[in-house]
Amino acid sequence: MIRNAGRAPGREETMVTIIYATAFYAASLLLVIALGRRIWLYAATPAPLKIPTTPAPTTKGGVVLRMIREVTVFESLFRANKWIWLFGWVFHLSLAVVLLRHLRYFLQPVPLPIVLVQPFGVIAGFSMVGSLLALWARRIVVERIRYITGPSDHLMLALLVAIGLSGLNLKFLARTDIVDVKEFFLGLMYFDVHRLPADPALLLHLTLVLTLMVVFPFSKLLHAPGVFFSPSRNQADDTREHRYARSAKLESTPRRA
Fold first, then answer.
1. Which of 76, 94, 209, 242 could form a Cys-Cys staple with 128, CB 3.0–4.6 A?
2. Is 177 exposed, middle or buried (0-12, 13-18, 19+ CB in 10 A)?
3. 105 and 98 in contact (C-beta within 8 Å)?
4. Per residue in 98-140, pLDDT tens?
């Protein structure tokens, strides 16, 4: 049964609520299962060769620090191309802030850090879209990048840009009842479905988000968890130490006649 603290939902809102509630449950289940399976395959794939990108750390502690730098400041990308690093880092930072801002729809009461991040989330929405457009333009303008760019790359960038623009549209132009939106998502978490407003702008934004949830485990966006399993990043450059230690051990072992 669909509940609402105010008026009873109409027939159209009831159908919209049922459709989107079912879609979010299905997309969430698919995302968890497909992403979990992909991560399990990453973890189970053997890496028999030492292939860390040099200069590489020689200890496990150094590898941990390297991974932290890769995930937070994109160290290798910074060394390779400063412009791509700038737009890529701005996009990921903006996306993180936007996601933090959206946590208010899933938490009650809303923690103070999430309250404080709200104004910055709006700014991050603009910077996210701007950096995505810059990265997209690079794939069109730069010839060698255009050569290796496939239709899926354009589609993923278009989807992310559309999500950002539709979210900004909800903030500044086609406003919706955010109280009902929050009740809807809180209800989904507790399997107690509440009315979802049938505003076209809101439904467009949610449809784009659902599309991203479905395609994420099968797209190039899997570099997010995949970076932690990259042999060129998560291996220590200790090949010589281990090789020489093993050779010395074999030489010291007495041979049988």
1. 94
2. middle
3. no
4. 999 999 999 999 999 999 999 999 999 999 999 999 999 999 9
HSE-CB at 198 with a 13 A cutoff on CA atoms is: 11
In which element (H, E) is residue 101 found?
Answer: helix 82-102
Q: Which of 208, 203, 96 is nearest to 156 (CA)?
A: 208
| CA–CA distance, 83 with 100 (Å, rounded to integer) | 26
Question: Around Cβ 184, how many Cβ atoms within 10 Å?
Answer: 24
The answer to whether the beta carbons of residues 217 and 34 sit under 8 Å apart is yes
Handedness of CA 212, 217, 221, 226 (dihedral sign): positive
Distance in angstroms (rounded) separating the CA atoms of residues 106 and 199? 20
Residue at token pair 């450059």: 237
pLDDT for 211: 97
- Model confidence pLDDT, tens digit, residues 144-163: 999 999 999 999 999 999 99
Residue type, 150: G
